[in-house]
Structures are given as C-alpha cells and as structure tokens.
Write a structure and sequence with these properties.
CATH superfamily of the largest domain: Adenylosuccinate Synthetase, subunit A, domain 3
Largest sheet: 10 strands, mixed
Bound molecules: inosinic acid
Number of helices: 12
CATH class of the largest domain: Alpha Beta
Number of strands: 20
Length: 435
Amino acid sequence: MPGLVIVGAQWGDEGKGKVVDLLAEQADLVIRFQGGNNAGHTIVRDQEVFKFHLIPSGILYPGKICAIGNGVVVDPRVLTEEIAELHRRGIDISGLRISANAHLIMPYHKLLDQAGEARLGSLQIGTTRRGIGPCYADKAARLGIRMQDLLDEKILRKKIYAALEPKRLMLRPFAKDPQLDLHAMTEDYVQLGHRLEPHIADTAPIAWRTLDRGELVVFEGAQGTMLDIDHGTYPFVTSSNPVAGAACIGAGVGPRSIDEVWGIAKAYATRVGAGPFPTELEDALGEQIREAGGEFGTTTGRARRTGWLDLVALRYAGRVNGFTGLVITKLDVLTGIDPLHVAVRYLGPEGATFEEFPYHQSILHKARGDLVELPGWHEDISGARSIDDLPRNAQDYLDFISDFLGVPIVMVGVGPARDEMIWTGAAERVRPAAA
Ligand code: IMP
C-alpha cells in the first residue's frame, strides 16, 4: 500500500492532523504537498501539547522522514521557530526535509495580504493574513523566491530586488517600514537559510525511493476541497489546490503512485472566513456545536462558522478527489443533539432544487440545504473502538453518509485523544498494528 493521500473534504479544520499523526506511525515518509502556515494543527502526546503549522506531525516519531514538498509555501521565520521549539523540547528532528523548490513567504507577501483584504473592505475573503495568496501569485508570475535561493546571497538579493520593485506602488503606505529594506531583508533571509540548510533537500527523489521500496508514503494535504482555488467556492478560497490531484504536483510523483485517497470530514460542517455555506446554523444550536467542538481556529483563533453536514458538497468532494475511503471525525460532538439533520440537495431562492453541487456562484451563494432528519443518540460514545460499539442511531448516521457518497468509512473519531478513534475493516490495509 505505498501511496495514501489525506485531504480535507470540507472547508479545512476536519482533523487531518490527528489522522496523519496516527498513520505516520507506520508510514516511511510523510510529505506535505500544498498550503503554508495558514494551516495549523494541535497534537496531544503524553499530555504534552504540540502545535504545528508547517512541519508534518509525523516528526514526533523519532527519525521519521517528514518532508515539506515543493508545493508548500514556507515562511522561513515560522519554520525556524517551529524547529527551535522542537529542539527546546528535546524532539529529534533529524528526519525533517524541506524541498529546495518550495517557495518562500517574504515580508512583502504578508503586507500585501493585509493590504489586499483592507482594500476589499466588506468583500474581503477573511484570509489568515499569512501572505499565502501573494506568495502563490509571485510563484505563478515567476517572481518567487525559493528555498534554494537562501543558499546564495547574490542570487537572493537579485531575486528579492526583482520581486519587490513591481510592488513598491502597492506597498506605498508601508514605504518606510524597515521590513521592506532590501539589504536588511536579504541579510535576514540569509541567516534563516543558514539555519534551515541542514534540512534543505531534493524531496521528490525521497518519495520515489520510498515508493519503489513498496513502503508507505502519506501525502498530507492542508485546508480542504471547498477551499480549492479551482474546485472550491471561488473567490472565497485559498490560493492552492488542496485536492488529491495536487499531491502529485506538490510532491513530485506521478498519478500512478497514488493508491488510496482518504477524505477527512467532520460529522458536521464548519467554515472560517467569508463565503457560501448552505447548511450554516446561525442560531443557538450552531453556538452549541461551536462550543462542544471547540471550533476556534488553531492559526488565527477565530470562531468558526458551524452547520449541518452538507452531503451535496461532500459527494462533490468525493468526485473531485476520487475518495477510496472516508474518515468521519468528531462524531462525539453530535452526542445529545436529537434530531440531527444532513443536507441531501440544495434549494434555490425560487423553489429550484439542485441535486449536484452548483458551479454557478449566484446559485451557490443563495442555496440552502434541503435537510433530512435523522435520529440522534444520547449515550457517551468516546469508549467505542469498533462500529458495533456505537449506538444504533450513530451507526445509521454513518451508514447514511457512506451510502450517499458510495465510499466506505475507514475511521471514525469519537473523542480528542489519540486512541479515541474507530478503525473499520475498510482501513485494514493501512491500520497500525497496535490500533
Ligand atoms: P488564505 O489561505 O490565508 O489566503 O485564506 C483564504 C481562505 O482560506 C480564508 O477563508 C481562510 O479562513 C481559509 N483557510 C486557509 N487556511 C485554512 C485552514 O487551514 N483551515 C480553515 N480555513 C483555512
């Protein structure tokens, strides 16, 4: 079972980090393929809390090869801070590899992200303001600075100059900001380069060799399908492709290297930032789910919008990614909510119905979920370790989802702790021996 892609099936924050952490135990390589430090996940290990934005969570297994692929955008300051923190806590990070081709987030990217949002006013996207969009924009404009550029001061200075000059006009309000001084910036990034140099590598061949040996490679996606720049709710999306196809591009392998694609979805839905959300609950129940699920961002601390599970969007995600398995997380958060609802089609403003996810933004922005009622459960499910341990209504809820998508459920999260997870028979091929 060599190539397994893990992707978010909703709007991000589905709990991918915990799933990757569990799979990493027996993976031979974990490689992230897109996004940057707009993502974030928290891992609790032996009562110690670790927060990661860039480093794959597999790093907590000593010596595990964890790579940041070419498709990721890296803020070298954030990365060096993450490395320093792991050092401080005595974690062996000898397995960390960073693609020499990964693009760098520069100070001007962050300023441009802020300025862009301010300019949009009420139309703003609600970005994480980490400079992600402007960095990918420079990559496409061929003005990007890459990890390998940190290792040659002359090249670095030239490239920063070439990238910075065209932005001076847009950055005029920040003209006196010391962050924009070419010499200081070059000096600063050279220093960061020295610190990162031991980890800079050609990461694609590491993936090829691991796959050639028939060993398990976990391709770790960030954000989620509905935030995909091509397939999500554009323009309220991130600037990369969180879908499974991007694993090939962002890690440097061909599609035939991918054997399994697992979509991660919460048992309900959340979204951070602006944009359409057809099953949103803007009432006390939405608040109850937010509190019960701890739905506040790891990266920005923002309260997440909450809603019912949207099966129209989830089935669409299944098609776009080609799911071979579905992981349902945080099922326990729904305990005590009775009845439950899921959306099985969308209703338009003039009585129109949409069975499939609509491509047209005007429809999508006004669509509301047509909800089906399903019975809830009241029993504590955190002790369940097999599907049979779950109350009948919880099993029926999972069956309803799986049948609607035509995809088997491979794992179910029943609580925040590492072991509060059900592995189903369908996960057999990658299930850690100890689980
Ligand atoms: P950006 O990726 O910072 O440009 O933000 C674009 C949109 O994606 C905003 O709505 C963000 O809230 C959202 N977003 C980016 N990263 C994440 C994530 O990891 N989880 C959830 N939403 C995210």
